[in-house]
Design a protein that fits this description.
The chain has about 300 residues and is of the alpha/beta class. It has helices at about 10-15, 30-35, 40-50, 65-75, 90-110, 125-135, 145-150, 155-165, 180-190, 200-205, 210-230, 235-245, 250-255; strands at about 1-5, 20-25, 55-60, 80-85, 115-120, 140, 175, 195-200, 260-265, 265-270, 280-285, 290-295. It is built from 13 helices and twelve strands. The structure holds erythose-4-phosphate (E4P).
């Protein structure tokens, strides 16, 4: 499954038209890069309007209580689709636990709100396991940043998926982010990622192949020629009669003209000349020239 790793509503709108995306992830760095100075609420609501599935928004407040309150404010933008992204450290684990407690309280009070939590900035399988134990629905591993540490990110993804599934957290989904090149996407999927969140420019690279572009160009050029050929004026028997008349044929000869057929670029007619000989009148579609000769 693919999410789009972007906070630009225009990109989200364009790429959701492909029908391959199931959600969106944002983070404070992406927002500051792609939408400098933009209002967060407006931006996220614009993204929600042009996408489907969960939209992850990260918490940035400095204390656990403030983060939990921040989560509730963000969540109120769309109770069903907002996914709260909690960075994983000791504070983050507390926030996840706090949010789950609040969620239970709401459900007891009669509101059936279910909160989605995406535990983020994860570099190790153990961080992912702790986040799952605290109550995360998703754990986000950062492929490119793990590779920066000279650690094999595929190994980390595989161990994380195995450790979650082996310890009763099979439903927790592994998201792989921090994708820096097209090849990372298939490596992440084969390592066991449930979801890969892909930046717009890399998603475009995934569908592009120079040989595909060349093949499509070749097919289109052939079809243009085909259409041009179909538009070539094929002379009718009337055109042939006119041509024959301009050559000085007698009225008797003109009465004998009949359609012969077509052979490649040549359209031919037949008539009997003034001396009574069977004669062909040709029209060359390519050169658009008429010619006549006796039938041998
Ligand atoms: C995904 O959820 C992350 O926010 C994102 O992919 C981080 O990528 P970066 O390493 O390019 O900042």
């Amino acid at each position: 499954m693919f999410y789009l790793d972007s906070s630009d509503p225009k990109e989200v709108e364009d790429l959701f038209k492909w029908g391959v995306l199931s959600g969106v992830t944002t983070n404070p760095l992406i927002i500051s890069r792609e939408m400098p100075g933009a209002d967060l609420e407006e931006t996220i609501k614009a993204i929600l309007a042009v996408s489907t599935g969960p939209v992850s928004v990260e918490l940035t407040e400095p204390t656990a209580m403030a983060m939990a309150d921040e989560a509730e404010r963000r969540w109120s933008w769309d109770w069903d689709r907002l996914c709260i992204k909690v960075p994983v450290n000791d504070l983050g684990l507390q926030v996840i636990r706090l949010l789950r407690t609040r969620e239970k309280r709401y459900q007891k009070e009669g509101s059936r709100k279910e909160l989605r939590i995406n535990a983020t900035c994860i570099m190790t399988p153990m961080q992912a396991l702790l986040a799952a134990m605290a109550g995360a629905d998703y754990v986000s591993l950062f492929w490119g940043r793990i590779a920066d540490l000279q650690v094999n990110p595929a190994h980390v993804v595989r161990l994380t998926r195995e450790s979650l599934s082996g310890r009763g957290y099979g439903k927790v989904e592994v998201i792989v982010g921090s994708i820096r090149q097209a090849g990372d996407v298939s490596c992440a999927l084969s390592a066991g990622a449930d979801i890969v969140t892909v930046p717009p420019q890399i998603l475009r690279q995934l569908v592009h192949h120079p040989r595909t572009a060349e093949t499509i160009r070749e097919f289109n050029e052939a079809w243009e020629k085909q259409l041009a050929a179909a538009q070539v004026a094929i002379p009718t028997i009337e055109d042939a009669r006119k041509e024959l008349k301009s050559m000085g044929a007698t009225a008797k000869s003109l009465r004998t003209i009949r359609g012969g057929g077509r052979n490649g670029d040549m359209v031919y007619f037949e008539y009997t000349n003034a001396l009574g000989a069977a004669t062909s009148l040709f029209y060359d579609i390519k050169t658009q020239q008429w010619a006549s000769c006796l039938v041998p």
